């Protein structure tokens, strides 16, 4: 019996572990409330991008991370279109301390999901007969660091 335990322990990978189990679209929404009239006007869009992430623990080593992109495009003060994509992934994450786990789920995973979400947004926009909308890359490491700094500032204000 002890030999089996030693063999099992030897097979266990040491150190941090990370793998992508699945990447999928969780939800998609597209609205063009002012069509077809929006197509008759000069095109000078104002683009607003909102991003959000949500993490759900599925098991001790599996996490579902959802990156939500909401893009609102206005043309001459009218909403040309609104598109929302929830791009998700199931990730195996183990052997990390709390700080490494936070960074992996809060920055690394959204960084992996963003190209998929960006492509889904662009595909929906072009299928709706609007000009392509290739969103600029996002620095999720900087956003995560900014979020941590805000949380630390709020915690120090409360004490």
UniProtKB/TrEMBL annotation:
Keywords, alphabetical: Chaperone, Cytoplasm, Protein transport, Translocation, Transport
Gene Ontology CC annotations of this record: cytoplasm
InterPro entries: SecB, SecB-like_sf
Primary localization class, coarse: cytoplasm
GO terms, biological process: protein folding; protein tetramerization; protein transport
GO molecular function: unfolded protein binding
Subcellular location: Cytoplasm
Highest taxon, organism lineage: Bacteria
Pfam families assigned to the protein according to its UniProt record, in alphabetical order: SecB
SUPFAM superfamilies: SecB-like
Function: One of the proteins required for the normal export of preproteins out of the cell cytoplasm. It is a molecular chaperone that binds to a subset of precursor proteins, maintaining them in a translocation-competent state. It also specifically binds to its receptor SecA.
Family: Belongs to the SecB family.
Matches recorded under HAMAP family: SecB
Subunit structure: Homotetramer, a dimer of dimers. One homotetramer interacts with 1 SecA dimer.
Protein name as annotated: Protein-export protein SecB
Species: Neptunomonas marina
Lineage, top ranks: Bacteria, Pseudomonadati, Pseudomonadota, Gammaproteobacteria, Oceanospirillales
Gene that specifies this protein: secB
